[in-house]
């Protein structure tokens, strides 16, 4: 089977949940004997890189700005997919890129198109009114006109089925189980000791709620540090704001974007993982933390409660006082927290296996070819 993937920035993943998901799925589809073509943006993936672990990479330009990067690249990728005339399935990722799937439906009728509903991006506070309206249009196109729609959470599945009155397939994102690493590089760089810090891994954008976490942490009496991993996404004002909130506390550490062994060490040695977001799809950072056996403290939005289950502790979203109380509880109950971490890793094995996700996605592709 020849499969095209459109909407992601590129692979290998440097950051971004969709990029990590596409990378894992695409490479597994290749190992299963299929030809996969992933469209990439030169501001994310080197345009001279033509293949990655057997996946064919097609670099097309884009207008590198907050509002035009994704849509200009998706337009060119869609046109390329139409006129290449070699694909058997086209798979769009995200509701923004899915706004243009009609190009394939009109210009290549009969070519199966699926779309993954990753997140209700219009709730993200970085977008203005026009962008939010356009993202809602993208959701409409995704859910009304794709031959098959994939939702990454039960909550998104239920929402889409109720609103658009159609069947939606549930196939979540997934993560690998990696071995834990000793604290070496993170000790050299930031003086971090195993079990002595709270970890958050996130883009530094407002809807991720990092300001709530910093404010709550500033009210704690603890020797454990707060480590915030990630960078902004056209959100320089917000990044400056949260760093100002943290400027008087030397125990708050911003590491910037991290990957590879450094990120693995950060996950491996944290005491607890905190995700205070106000809006999510299915967070790969949360799944990755759970895969390392980390207990998780999450805001009580459905998109966080569904994956964390009994492995997590929740607080009322946006409530800094409740977040502080739950952090205090976690810090003062280490044995209970450790048990939560064991449940987290078991949950990843049972519910978010990449092998099952690949198998189910292939089954969906095949169902469109019958």
Kindly describe this structure.
This protein is an alpha/beta fold. It is built from 15 helices and 14 strands. It has helices spanning 17-31, 69-84, 95-98, 102-107, 129-145, 154-164, 185-190, 210-218, 236-246, 260-269, 284-291, 302-308, 320-332, 334-351, 354-369, and strands spanning 2-6, 35-40, 51-52, 55-59, 89-93, 113-117, 148-151, 169-170, 197-201, 225-229, 252-256, 272-275, 296-299, 312-315. α1 crosses α15 (354-369). The chain is globular and about 60 Å long.
Major sheet size, sense and barrel closure: 8 strands, mixed
CATH superfamily of the largest domain: Glycogen Phosphorylase B
Cα shape: globular
**Overall CATH class of the largest domain:** Alpha Beta
Number of strands: 14
- Reported CATH architecture of the largest domain: 3-Layer(aba) Sandwich
Q: What letter string, H or E per element, gives the SSE order?
A: EHEEEHEHHEHEHEHEHEHEHEHEHEHHH
- The proportion of residues forming helix, as a percent range, comes to 40-55%
- Poorly predicted tracts of residues: none
Instruction: Decide which structural class fits the backbone.
Output: alpha/beta
Give the strand content.
Answer: 15-25%
- Radius of gyration in whole Å, from Cα? 20 Å
CATH topology of the largest domain: Rossmann fold
Count of DSSP H/I helices: 15
N-to-C CA distance: 13 Å
pLDDT averaged residue by residue: 94
Domain count: 2
**Spatial strand arrangement across the major sheet:** 3-4-2-1-5-6-7-8
């Amino acid at each position: 089977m020849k499969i095209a993937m459109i909407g992601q920035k590129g692979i290998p993943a440097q950051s971004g949940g969709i990029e990590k998901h596409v990378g894992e799925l695409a490479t597994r589809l290749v190992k299963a004997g299929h030809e996969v073509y992933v469209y990439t943006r030169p501001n994310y993936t080197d345009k001279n890189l033509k293949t990655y672990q057997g996946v064919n990479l097609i670099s097309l330009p884009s207008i590198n700005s907050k509002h035009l990067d994704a849509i200009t690249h998706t337009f060119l990728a869609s046109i390329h997919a139409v006129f290449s005339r070699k694909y058997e399935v086209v798979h769009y990722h995200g509701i923004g890129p899915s706004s243009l799937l009609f190009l394939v439906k009109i210009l290549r009728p009969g070519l199966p198109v699926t779309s993954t509903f990753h997140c209700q991006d219009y709730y993200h506070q970085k977008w203005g009114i026009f962008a939010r309206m356009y993202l809602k249009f993208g959701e409409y196109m995704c859910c009304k006109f794709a031959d098959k729609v994939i939702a990454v959470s039960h909550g998104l599945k239920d929402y889409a089925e109720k609103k658009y009155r159609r069947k939606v397939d549930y196939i979540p994102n997934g993560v690998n189980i990696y071995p834990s690493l000793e604290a070496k590089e993170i000790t050299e760089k930031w003086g971090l000791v195993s079990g002595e810090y709270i970890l958050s891994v996130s883009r530094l954008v407002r809807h991720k709620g990092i300001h709530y976490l910093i404010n709550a942490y500033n009210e704690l009496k603890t020797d454990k540090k707060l480590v915030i991993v990630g960078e902004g996404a056209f959100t320089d004002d917000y990044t400056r704001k949260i760093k100002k909130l943290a400027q008087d506390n030397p125990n708050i550490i911003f590491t910037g974007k991290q990957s590879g062994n450094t990120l693995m060490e950060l996950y491996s040695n944290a005491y607890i993982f905190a995700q205070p977001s106000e809006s999510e799809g299915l967070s790969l950072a949360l799944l990755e933390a759970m895969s390392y056996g980390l207990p998780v403290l999450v805001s009580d939005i459905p998109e966080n409660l569904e994956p964390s289950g009994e492995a997590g502790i929740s607080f009322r979203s946006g409530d800094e006082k409740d977040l502080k109380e739950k952090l205090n509880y976690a810090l003062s109950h280490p044995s209970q927290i450790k048990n939560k971490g064991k449940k987290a890793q078991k949950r990843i094995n049972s519910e978010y296996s990449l092998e099952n996700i690949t198998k189910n996605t292939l089954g969906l592709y095949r169902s469109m070819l019958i």
